[in-house]
TrEMBL record:
Domain Heterokaryon incompatibility, first and last residues per copy: 46-199
Domain of life from the UniProt record: Eukaryota
Organism: Alternaria arborescens
InterPro entries hit by this protein: HET, HetReg/Transcr_Mod
Protein name: Heterokaryon incompatibility domain-containing protein
Length: 667
């Protein structure tokens, strides 16, 4: 509060407060003092703290400037550790150094946070108090990093046989307890706090504290990035998540997705160092990070962009005002895009039965950030920009008391069928499949349903390149190619992963599903073959029936023979599964990247594609001038509402540029 004993006056300009922790014996109350300094004229040696507030637990009292002050338990813990280490360098801590009750001061100080962290001598990362399983977690991180210790390649690009062998080795030889420990470690709240993105990226030097231990020598983020591509190891991690106590299934699924946040931190750092990506992709990548104040999901990233001024950070505005202004900045070009100002509309996400009540052209970024929906326009292949020659024509107008957008476009098709994708996904996220018998059955049955709809005389599980009209796709080429390419959207995703070059990984995906589905049949055959193999054994027992010495020995050998045969068969089956899992990986990753929040669809013109989960039969499909992908539109009073972007095979390469179109009203 302004004019309080701790905050006697409001900070102005580039003035900041720094905290000094006074020495004290263990168990004694914490005493600290606040002093003011100027970032411009008096360069000070100070540390900046990167931590989680932990506001859900009861606060703890400390003494600041000789007056009591309540802080969160997590902050109290790190200040105790700071005192224990006898660190006399002043510390900048947002919760104490900013008068949080003063909106004006809070706004001005948050606008300066990028400078505060970039000018600090060191950023101290506080992961929390040490816990018993930490040693196991750090051991796993170190072991996973060793094979690539001298590697210079990008972690997420390490694929192929080497990664596969290491993946299977670690998943097989590292006990589950160690994976449980690593899962708990990566789910520490610090890895999911939105503010740590800028705190980490802007730091000159970082020191990571976990209780009394400093773990600067552990490549946590880089190893997490490599781990994100090791499917078997990820399964072990997710088993660790399931072993924890969760209040409900939603909380467990959220935790499973947050496992990847350490990987995301590395990716953002990597992309930023190479001047890649953009503002929109930054918002998308941080979707599973947390903030106490929902506006901070936006404000925390402002300093990392080059096209949003710090003045955008304003805590006097509501979230709805902030998000609407941000949308206008994208659409009028104040915020740059990788290709088109309409790129932001590709981030529209709606629930299956959601009623579109708000202006459909306003993208609720919190909704985007809390989903795993992959937008069609987050990455551009090098050839795509050249295909888009026109500039979007849009006007912001007020009509009948509503803010609407008039935009040039073409409505060219109608949705006639929608088919939900089968459940083959683990709850673990976008790069993992659950290859269980019921899921394999369901997926193969789903393909048969789609075959009956779009290729009654064909088979979409294997190549079909005959010249019969039933095998030719509406936009040219073959239906088989159109189908498998549709399942992976045939596009570059958020991460630098290319779609499969040919159908071989899709073919391996189908073979893997068949292998899993036929497990029961294989088991039956296994015992059948074992019975046949036992015929010589039975003959031997018969011949030795009167030999009192050899007959008992022969009978005792039976369990061993059965076990050997069983293990040999299981080893063969497991080997086949590992082989197909490796071969189908490229297709699987892309398929799951794009199917989240989408469904399969067919249009009146015979085009197949990936449609938003909220799309319905009867919805229209159209292009906007200057934009490269089609959108699903729903007729509404006064115009159209945007349902979401779509992949329609055969019209993803700028075909909309050929149409003059008309002015459409988006409400």
């Amino acid at each position: 509060m302004v004019n309080s004993p701790i905050y006697p006056h409001e900070l102005t300009g580039r003035t900041i407060r720094l905290l000094t922790v006074e020495p004290g014996d263990p168990g004694t109350p914490l005493h600290c003092n606040l002093t003011e300094t100027y970032l411009d004229t008096t360069p000070s040696s100070y540390y900046a703290l990167s931590y989680c507030w932990d506001a859900n637990r009861s606060p703890v009292q400390i003494i600041c400037n000789s007056h009591p002050l309540l802080v969160t338990p997590n902050l109290h813990s790190v200040l105790l550790e700071y005192r224990r280490r006898a660190t006399r360098i002043p510390l900048w801590v947002d919760a104490i150094c900013i008068d949080q009750s003063n909106i004006t001061e809070r706004t001005s100080q948050v606008r300066m946070m990028d400078q505060i962290y970039s000018e600090a001598e060191c950023v101290v990362v506080w992961l929390g108090e040490a816990e018993a399983p930490d040693e196991m977690a750090l051991w796993v991180l170190k072991e996973l990093h060793l094979p690539w210790a001298d590697s210079t390649d990008m972690p997420v690009m390490e694929t192929g046989e080497r990664a596969l062998v290491l993946d299977e080795y670690y998943a097989t030889h590292v006990p589950q307890a160690y994976w449980n420990a690593l899962a708990a470690f990566l789910l520490r709240p610090w890895f999911s706090r939105i503010w740590v993105v800028q705190e980490l990226l802007l730091a000159r030097q970082v020191s990571i504290w976990c209780g009394s231990r400093t773990i600067d020598d552990f490549p946590v983020l880089e190893t997490a990035a490599r781990l994100s591509q090791m499917i078997s190891c990820i399964r072990m991690l997710h088993a660790g998540v399931k072993a924890m106590a969760w209040k409900d299934e939603d909380a467990q699924q959220a935790a499973e997705k947050k496992l990847g946040n350490a990987h995301v931190l590395f990716m953002i750092k990597y992309i930023r160092e190479r001047a890649m990506g953009g503002t929109l992709s930054l918002f998308a990548m941080t979707r599973w990070f947390d903030a106490t104040d929902r506006r901070d999901k936006i404000f925390a990233l402002v300093s990392l962009t080059s096209d949003i001024d710090r003045s955008f950070v304003d805590y006097s505005r509501s979230y709805e005002e902030v998000i609407k202004e941000l949308n206008l900045m994208f659409l009028d070009g104040r915020i740059g895009s990788m290709g088109c100002v309409l790129d932001i509309w590709s981030f529209i996400t709606r629930a299956e039965e959601e009623d579109i009540t708000q202006p459909s052209w306003v993208v609720d970024l919190l909704k985007v950030l809390e989903s795993k929906y992959t937008a069609m326009m987050t990455a551009y292949a090098t050839y795509e920009k050249s295909m888009i020659e026109r500039t979007p024509e849009l006007q912001f107008v007020e009509r009948d008391g509503k803010e609407v957008i008039d935009i040039r476009g073409t409505v060219f098709d109608t949705i006639t069928h929608v088919i939900r994708f089968p459940t083959v996904r683990d709850a673990v996220g976008a790069t993992q499949l659950s290859f269980e018998a019921k899921n394999a059955h369901g997926y193969l049955d789903w393909i048969q349903r789609v075959t009956d709809l779009i290729a009654p005389s064909g088979d979409l599980t294997k190549p079909s390149y005959s010249s019969e009209s039933s095998n030719i796709y509406q936009c040219g080429g073959y239906i088989f190619d159109a189908f498998w390419r549709t399942l992976c959207c045939n596009r570059q995703a958020v991460e630098p992963i290319e779609p499969p070059a040919d159908f071989l990984s899709y073919d391996a995906f189908i073979e893997l599903l068949r292998l899993v589905r036929w497990r029961y049949e294989i088991r039956f055959k296994k015992w059948l073959y074992l019975g046949i193999a036992m015929a010589p054994y039975s003959a031997l027992v018969y011949r030795l029936r009167r030999n009192k010495l050899l007959l008992p020995a022969t009978l005792l050998a039976l369990p061993t023979i059965v076990r050997v045969c069983h293990r040999a068969w299981e080893s063969f089956w497991y080997g086949m599964r590992v082989y197909y899992e490796a071969q189908q990986k490229d297709f699987q990753i892309m398929h799951l990247q794009w199917t989240m929040g989408r469904q399969f669809g067919l249009t009146r013109l015979g085009m197949i594609g990936m449609l938003p989960i909220s799309a319905k039969v009867g919805d229209s499909v159209g292009f906007f001038a200057g934009n490269r992908v089609p959108f699903v539109l729903r007729k509404s009073e006064g115009g159209y509402k945007i349902v979401g972007d779509a992949y329609l095979h055969g019209v993803m390469n700028g075909e909309g540029e050929k149409s003059e179109g008309e002015m459409l009203t988006i409400v």
